[in-house]
Design brief:
The chain is 50% helix and 13% strand. The protein has helices at residues 22-33, 51-61, 79-88, 106-117, 141-158, 174-177, 189-199, 224-239, 244-261, 268-287, 290-304, 310-334; strands at 9-15, 38-45, 67-73, 94-97, 124-128, 136-137, 170-173, 205-208, 211-212. The protein folds into 2 domains: 4-239, Alpha-Beta Complex (Spore Coat Polysaccharide Biosynthesis Protein SpsA, Chain A); 244-342. It is α/β, with parallel strands linked by helices. It has a 7-stranded mixed beta sheet, with helices on both faces. The protein starts with 8 loop residues before the first strand and ends in a 9-residue tail after the last helix. It has 12 helices and 9 strands. Helix 7 packs parallel to helix 8, helix 9 packs parallel to helix 11 and helix 11 (290-304) packs antiparallel against helix 12 (310-334). Helix 1 links the parallel strand 1 (9-15) and strand 2.
Length: 343
């Protein structure tokens, strides 16, 4: 599906105070993507360090074959808003998201583009800084730790197996772009994007990329505070940005699982079991609507009728697992039918 003007690839690059890197970045983009069927979109997110002037000079050179757009935002609105603006102004069949700071290699971006272009079954590829055997330079342990923890939580919440949900290098087919509606304006855009892709039943492929960490003195803008804020976006994207039916399922399954937890332990231990089962129930409610969730509850209840003491606990666990497996198969059966909203 070619877009108007026959643009195959749109490269969206948010820029905020990156004057040290723009000339080199442009040279690398030109080396790998200098083709009349591509377009490069710089979104100047309220820069005040001279980046605006450099982008203007780059555009005026006209020593490139691709279409070049420079979009100026009057005030710094955040990476998420810049990406949203770039996507709205893109025309390509594929949209490549590339950071301007050269932490991620444009050579890897080209490899990702060639891969998705030559495989019609792949609609989305995320770069991963943790998968590759490529060059890496990373001296910031805490940022890396937060990123890995966030990826783990994302995987639990959305039943995925991603290694690096925060990597800024991504490529999406237009089919994905037309389904998602991004709304986060800051660095939480990565979680917003990934969660919406999963909600729309697209598979996320990963590709190992090089990573050259830069320090705060070199212009690094994301901080540990942004890392902590991402926990909020994980909770929001999973437990609040849902349909009414999903929210009802979460409430329903959390309630009956908290009831199940009340039968374990004593005193403080009982309270902790209730909290744990409540949280676990909310995850069940995310993945199963009320009908399939009720099957799980019925199996738990049936298991409680067997044995005594520890024997009852074992029976409940076994029946719970059977209920989960049965519910998954029922959900899969109805997935592509008009009844999928009920299962």
């Amino acid at each position: 599906m070619l877009q108007k003007n026959n643009i195959n690839l749109s490269i969206v690059i948010p820029v905020f105070n990156e004057k040290k890197y723009l000339y080199k970045l442009f040279d690398e983009i030109k080396f790998h993507f200098d083709n009349s069927e591509n377009e490069v979109i710089f979104i100047d997110d309220g820069s005040n360090d001279g980046s605006t002037t450099i982008l203007k000079k780059i555009k005026e050179k006209k020593n490139y074959k691709f279409a070049l757009k420079v979009i100026k935002l009057d005030i710094n609105s955040g990476k998420g808003r810049a990406i949203q603006t770039g996507i709205k102004n893109s025309e390509g069949e594929y949209v490549l998201l590339q950071d301007a700071d050269l932490e991620l290699d444009t050579k890897d971006a080209k490899e990702m583009y060639d891969m998705i272009k030559n495989n019609s079954d792949i609609k989305c590829i995320f770069g991963s800084r943790y998968l590759s055997g490529k060059l890496k330079k990373n001296n910031y342990f805490f940022n890396s730790l937060i990123g890995k923890i966030n990826s783990l939580i994302f995987n639990i919440f959305f039943a995925q197996s991603l290694s690096d949900v925060h990597c800024g290098l991504k490529i999406l087919h237009r089919d994905v772009i037309e389904k998602i509606k991004l709304s986060v304006n800051d660095f939480g855009i990565e979680i917003d994007l990934a969660s919406q892709i999963v909600r729309n039943n697209f598979h996320i492929f990963e590709f190992g990329v090089s990573y050259f960490f830069r320090s705060k003195a070199e212009g690094k803008k994301i901080t540990w505070i942004d890392g902590l804020k991402s926990f909020y976006y994980l909770i929001k994207s999973r437990f609040f940005d849902n349909s009414v039916s999903t929210n009802l399922s979460i409430l329903y399954s959390s309630t009956y699982m908290a009831f199940v937890g009340s039968h374990f332990g004593m005193g403080l231990g009982n309270t902790l079991f209730i909290i744990f089962f409540f949280i676990f129930g909310s995850v069940i409610g995310i993945h199963f609507k009320i009908l399939t969730s009720s099957i799980i509850f019925l199996f738990i209840f049936a298991g409680s009728l067997f044995g005594k003491g520890n024997g009852t606990t074992i029976a409940v666990i076994i029946f719970f697992i059977v209920g989960i497996l049965l519910s998954r198969n029922i959900k899969k059966y109805f997935l592509n039918t008009k009844f999928n909203q009920f299962f």
